[in-house]
Task: structure prediction
Amino acid sequence: MQKFIEDNSLRDRLYIFKDRKEAGMLLAQKLSGYKGTDGIILGIPSGGVPVAAEVAKDIVLPLDLIIVRKVQIPYNPEAGFGAVGPDGKVVLNQEILNSLDLTKEEIDQQIQITMDKIRRRDKLFRKGLPFPSVKDKVVIIVDDGLASGYTMLSAIDFVKRHKPQKIVVAVPTALDRTVDRILPHADELVCLNVRSGWSFAVADAYENWYDLEDDEVISILKYFHPDQE
Result:
């Protein structure tokens, strides 16, 4: 049976985290039971990396990245109609896709653009190194929030195919409907700030919100992997 953990005092509240670092520190408190276990933290770049870094520091687990990315709508890059995993597997949000007037060529083009970005990020952030073994491990997948959740579904699908002991999804904020979408696919879902309503933005949980530059992600990774240049 899937386990769901939230902070009821934060339900439907806005601007409750100073920044991603604070959100990660608070999230780590809910994950303290995994401290020192045979596990690994996988951050989703870019916004999930500083959150994941604080969790990894606090519960003393190794940090790596799982590079998944939403497939952007051509005329609205803030929104997506699916996601692509590290190995190129595509997960489509058919409900959204049915409402878009996109040709097959446009869909295929956006998927190819997404795959190219994943390859670039893997080379930049992970130096093209093999994905770490997660077999029989507790895998905690961290992002800075869940909107539609399809990027997280893609990450879960990829990890699940590598036979982990347990998959834990940990995010500071999420839409309630997305929590319901994700929970059946994970063993445990930890979300501090669950919000309802038809309008949702991950950014609305943070006082200080910005898009991370690549250099900031690389700097965080160097803290955990100082030998990788």
